[in-house]
Every structure is written in C-alpha cells, then in structure tokens.
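Hi X.,

You mentioned you wanted examples for the new student's onboarding notes, showing what a folding record looks like when two proteins sit in one file. Here is a clean example. The first protein comes first, with its sequence line followed by its structure tokens.
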Amino acid sequence: MSLCCGVECVVIIGFARWVWKRCAHISGNDSANWTLVAPGEFEPIPRMCRLVLAVYETDLHNPQFSPQHGYRLNPDWVIKRVTYEQTQGRAPPYLIYTDHEHKEIVLAVRGLNLYKESDYKTLLDNRLGMQMFDGGFVHHGLLKSAVWLLNAEGETLKRLWEESGKEYGMVFAGHSLGSGVVSLLTVIVANHRDKLGGVPREKIRCYAMAPARCMSLNLAVKYADVIHSVILQDDFLPRTATPLEDVFKSIFWLVFLCPCHCRGYLCLSSCIQILTLVNLVEWVTNYYLLNQVLVLCTACPACCFWFV
C-alpha cells in the first residue's frame, strides 16, 4: 500500500513539473541560441506585412485601417484587388502589386476571416495523411486554394514578369490562413516555374506571417530557401497542432468530457509528434520577433520541435 502511494506521489509530482514547464514555456526559450538576423535580410518583412494589411482595405486611396506611418505603397501600382465575392470562397481576398521601387511583383493574401464560413471549410478540409505532394504531405484544403489561385492569376503574374523584362522578383506574402495558401502556392511555382514564364527559383520568395501548418517536415526543409515564416513572440498559431479540426475536438473534450483525451491532441511531446512524416509544420527558415529583437533560425529541423 505504501509503495503504491509512493509511486502515485512520484507520478503526480512529475506530471505537475511537466505541466509547469509546459505552461511556463515562453517565446524567449525558443530562440535563446539563435543568431541575430542581418538588417538587410529583414528589410522586406515590414513591407510584406504592410502589403498584406492593405488587402483589408476597400479603397487604398482613402484607407480606413492605415498603420501609424501608412502603407508606404503607391495605390496606382496595385494591378488587381480581389474580394470574397469574386473568389466565391475558394481563396481568401488578395491583391497583386507591382513594386517598381524594389523590383518585385507581390501577391498578398489576407488572413482568416472569423465571419466567413468558406475560410473554416478550407481549414477543416484535411485529414492526417490525406494529401501527398512532392514526396511529402500537405494540407488538402490549403492546397486546393493555392491551385485555384495559381489557375486564376498565373497568366497575370506571367504577363507582369515578362513586361518587367524578366528582372523583377516574384514574391508571395500572406498572414494566418493566407500564409498557408501562399506557401503551398510557392511550392507549386517552384516545381512548375514554366507556369509563370520560367521565373528562376532564386527570384521566388514567400513571406508567411503567423504561419499556419501546411506541409510535412521534409517539404519544410526542402523549400526553406524560398519560404520564410515570421513569428511574433508567444503567438499561439504556429504552435497549434494540425489538423485544426483536432484542436476543436480537443477543446470539446477539455471542457465537456475527458481532459486526459485532450492531452493526446494538445499536450503530446513535440518529439513524438514531429517524428511522423504526415504531421504538418510551419517552415524551417523562421524569423522570430522577440521584444523588438529579431533572431533567425535557418535550415535547422530541430527548431520545429519547439513549435509543435
């Protein structure tokens, strides 16, 4: 009897310690050993953030949600702005912008709209191991959205790149849901560059803010040179396990039924989750904004362990 009580006490103490460490884990722990990024490498990120934010505006000549120093873009350089009505829910709203100052053609996609059922349908259109692509696994719903976006705007992007003398870079930027769409769009374009007129891989870039998980680890490593994710401090989204449907199930179990079942979705060891190829992760090149100090982790699969 005393032995059983002793074992039970050890288990309880051990579990309490594990819960405390898990709950006390902060963003500073993730990047404690990372190096500071060069200012020149970070320079495009604020621009991409402003462009993604500009997608939310209905009229860029008379903006309603302008950041403190404005969008710093020329509204006359906006080639196209597409709304939910035009996409019919097959992709989030987006805009195409030709940045002649920085010689870039940018496709920026907005984030999740909590009032749009179509966005939830895109997120929940996935199951573990449902969609294979390029030797790995990707999010089925986000891939469908990316394919639709490429079919809809491929000719426009190709024309703009050829009109620029094939000198401009091709940049895809997105936030939250949009980050998943543009990242998979980047993967497709990197494999089928002829669809955009043969744009070289070194001219392709993707910037994903608050990245959603959409590809398996082997693909994250493979495309780390073109896809860059930006994480702000303790942002929960990059740490949320996929598929997102499992998170909703976990919350249901947590509140109404069995906390122990919830642990299987939310509290598993990162190492256990990352070992399976079909689990989806964000990207391996990560820019981590921490108390206004930027750190960088490049092509280091180990860093993904912290984000599961």
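Then the second protein repeats the pattern, sequence line and then tokens:
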Amino acid sequence: MLPLWFVGAQGHSVQKACARGNRSILKPLNYPKILHPNNVNVNAKIKDFYIHEFLPTACPDFGRQDRGESQENYGSTATCDFACLQGLSRRIHYGKLVVESKFRSDPEKYTRYFIMPVTSYVHILTLKRLQWRY
C-alpha cells in the first residue's frame, strides 16, 4: 500500500512554506467581486476516493510480506499520484471559473441549458481543440 503519510506530508510542507512567506511586500489589490464565492470544493471527496477506493484496488493486500521491489516504487508512485491529484483539482477549479465566465457572458442562454440534463449542454462548455491539448 502507498504510504498515506506521503500525501499528508506533501500538503504539510506546502502549508509551512506558505505560512513562512505569508508577509507580502506589495499592497493588496482591491478587485471588484464579480464572481460568486468559491464555496465548491471537492478535494476532500477526491482524497477520500483515492485513499479508500483507488489505493486498495491498485495495491491489493495479498496477505504476505512485500518482496521489496514494489515497496521501493511506492514513493515514486505516490509522487506521481500526488501530481495527478493536484492536476485534477486544478482542472476542476479552472472549470468552475470558465463556466461562470461563460454564464455571465449570456445568462439567458446558459440558464436555458442548465435546466436540462448535463449531457445535453456539456458540448457548449467544452472546446474540443483545447480539451485534447492538455
């Protein structure tokens, strides 16, 4: 099983670095509040799925001692998994901004779409040429 302390340790290191460098040398900018408050956060759900669903499936416990080779790979795997989870979180966050921006550009059009099932309007939110780029 991947060391779960790794996920926590990575986050803790970032948190400590941010706390240390919390003093800004620039005055804060006062932008008008044009977006809704960012109160949608699925990071806890993603982490819970990763720990309780994905890891047990990807790293089954066969009831015997690890033979060594896979144990040595757990750190590298955890690093890659962590980068993927961060990328997923970032993509969700940017997606929220894109959807709100598009909605603000034409509220009537998007209100009509948003009362329909997701499969019927996802195509208007997605630019295929950009989706495959990343």
